[in-house]
Amino acid sequence: MIFFSRSKPIHLDFFTTNPAIFEHAKPERAAKFIPQWWKNIPKDGYDHKDDLEPRRTIKRCHAFMELYNKGFIHPLWSEVNIQIDPDGAYAYQYADHNSEIISHQSFQYVGSPFHKQYVQLKFQSPWIAKTKSSASWLWTCAQWNGIGIKQMIVSHGVFAFNIVPTPLHINTFFEIPKERVTHRLNFGIPLAHVIPLSEKKLKMKHHLINTEEFEKMKKRTTMHFFFSNRLSKARKMCPYG
Question: What is the pTM of this model?
Answer without folding.
Answer: 0.85
